[in-house]
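A reminder from the course coordinator: this example appears on the midterm review sheet, so study it carefully.

Given structure:
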């Protein structure tokens, strides 16, 4: 059942393609936010592919590394602020709570990274010269 978590990867890919058409100035902000929302469950789902002989080992390794980076932040956040007791067996509702905290943390983080990328792309000016008779006017490409 956890293999279906990989289907969540469709969300950031769809957001990236839709923002390329409809909102190109906010493409990286929205794509980063969508990626942050699903990065922890997708990495958990990739771990389940380790039983597939060749390609599954590589996907599982990507999932393990991604889960080490993204999966434990929500747990440590909740433990440090008293939302959970450390060292106890986690129930399904607690795992959902951890996933929601991970989504909030990583969504805001990757959203900020995307916002900065959008800002850098917006400030890059590509001057184009337009010749009108003997005058040379510089025009900003949009």
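Designed residues:
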């Amino acid at each position: 059942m956890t293999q279906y978590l990989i289907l969540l990867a469709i969300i950031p890919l769809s957001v990236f393609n839709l923002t390329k058409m409809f909102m190109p100035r906010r493409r990286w902000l929205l794509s980063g936010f969508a990626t942050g929302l699903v990065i922890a469950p997708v990495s958990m789902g990739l771990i389940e592919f380790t039983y597939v002989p060749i390609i599954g080992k590589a996907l599982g390794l990507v999932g393990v590394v991604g889960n080490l980076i993204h999966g434990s932040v929500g747990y440590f956040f909740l433990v440090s602020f008293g939302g959970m007791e450390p060292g106890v067996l986690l129930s399904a509702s607690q795992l959902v709570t951890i996933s929601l905290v991970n989504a909030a943390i990583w969504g805001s983080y990757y959203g900020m990274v995307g916002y900065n990328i959008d800002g850098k792309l917006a400030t890059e000016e590509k001057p184009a010269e337009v010749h009108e008779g003997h005058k040379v006017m510089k025009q900003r490409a949009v």
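The first strand starts at residue 127 and ends at 132. The chain has one domain: 2-140.
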